[in-house]
Amino acid sequence: MHTCPRCESKEATVVSKSPVEGAWEVYMCPVCIFTWRSIEPETITNPEKYNRAFKVNPADIPLAENVPALPAKYIK
Amino acid sequence: MAYKDFRDFLATLEKEGQLLTIHDEVKPEPDIAAATKAMSKLGSETPAMLFDNIYGYTNAKVAMNVMGSWPNHALMMGLPKNTPLKDQFFEFARRYDQFPVPVQREETAPFHEVEITENINLFEILPLFRLNQGDGGFYIDKACVISRDLDDPDHFGKQNVGIYRMQVKGKDCLGIQPVPQHDIAIHLRQAEERGENLPVVIALGNEPAITTAAATPLLYDQSEYEMAGAIQGEPYRIVKAKDSNLDIPWGAEVVLEGELLAGVREFEGPFGEFTGHYSGGRSMPVIKINRVYHRKNPIFEHLYIGMPWTETDYMVGINTSVPLYQQLKEAFPNEIEAVNAMYTHGLVAIISTKRRYGGFAKAVGMRALTTPHGLGYCKLVIVVDEDVDPFNLPQVMWALSTKMHPKHDAVIIPDLSVLALDPGSEPSGITHKMILDATTPVAPETRGHYSQPLDSPLNVDKWEQRLRELLQ
């Protein structure tokens, strides 16, 4: 498990490894769906250096607007 | 002049000196997006780029900026690469009038070479990478997405081919942005009301006629495939999907078959958009991929999108201007001269027109606001005389400088619809719109001092021709 740089959940997993062994891995966070590659700059990979304006609070995710709106029958 | 497939078009670009192959090793991030953005800064005649040495990959090829310049747009139509922009506009308009050109159906296609139905992993099939620093993930943003009208499934024209941004959200999952104005949102709505998933096909790496048609604001029941045939001057080739009755561009490099999941919305974004701003994070529909086909050693075509101008602006410039032009001509066939709606997908449009009487130009501007595309764009419409070339911005600025009187010629209409991505709209999707009438007043509008427009010295045209020859 890896820490998501954007929402800081600890549940991110490896979704891909480089065809050339050991070059990089790609991770995905199941909470905010953030995706990143291990060799990206620290402003992408490091939770402390990730641009604060783009941080995601997991508590806000269920509040995000539906686009397009869901038909009434799907709204619980 | 049709291009057989994506590789055929790349070969033409190379022959014409409009393809730069980068053999030096690049990192997926930030190099490919950075190089593409940098290329856009070098002017409006830049080449496409092919990256064939990407760190960590053994055999990946990524094509960028494929239609990111006016020479490449001209070559898309099979015209000489130095064809002037206004000539490209009128040639596109001429071919648009040839619509519809019936399609040519095929049984097999090159992308059938490799087929994957188990353990699909899009991250391994495609060399995906981040475009902009704030993007929530890796995106696919130049693919044709195909779906059908479920209430009228045999209506070929109601089958839609559109280009939508898609975030890769899992090994076999994509998020998609079908905003309510998009045709695919109509299909999704039908499916969700039935409680059914919506079959979709995603075709990546296509020859440019279908990409251009898919990015053209056609009417709901007009077929993009029959428009691609009109643009390329011969029938467009398609082949059936295996899991649905959808039709696929024959020359695609990679094809994904799947379904839009009814009733599902999931966090998506942000994504750097064509407005030069990020969209916020929103909950959007999800596509599950069930089948993948691709050519051997497929080329991944991708599109950098960001602060204009980038490839997007070349891709949706003329094909946005021409439908507006044709729809305005339906109302005013003898007056409309040309339309330039190339600025941020037509949020700003410039119309060149004759005037029959005072107030006429403002009516032309009002009509632009009520065209299908105008409902979501045309926030500012500038109307100029018929002898002002709307593609020549210094001429347009001259018209604004000298013909427009702010008291009489600036018209603001409150609270009209606009695309929600317009960062200035408030609430999102609502904005005032403005018409600037920069035409010469005609009777009964007699204000101003316009009776002595400057002429040119005799024989300027002859000299212009002579100088062109001397300078060649």
From TrEMBL, chain A:
Q: So which domain of life are we looking at?
A: Bacteria
Q: Which Pfam families match?
A: EcdD_BsdD_detox
Q: What is this protein called?
A: Phenolic acid decarboxylase subunit D
From TrEMBL, chain B:
Superkingdom of this entry's organism?
Bacteria
Stretches assigned to the 3-octaprenyl-4-hydroxybenzoate carboxy-lyase-like N-terminal domain: 10-87
Identify the residues that bind Mn(2+).
160, 182, 224
Which Gene Ontology terms cover its molecular function?
Answer: 4-hydroxy-3-polyprenylbenzoate decarboxylase activity; 4-hydroxybenzoate decarboxylase activity; metal ion binding
**So which cofactors does this thing need?**
prenylated FMN; Mn(2+)
Q: Where is the 3-octaprenyl-4-hydroxybenzoate carboxy-lyase-like Rift-related domain?
A: 106-308
What Pfam families does the entry give? UbiD, UbiD_C, UbiD_N
Query: What does the function comment of this entry state?
Result: Involved in the non-oxidative decarboxylation and detoxification of phenolic derivatives.
Q: What is this protein identified as?
A: Phenolic acid decarboxylase
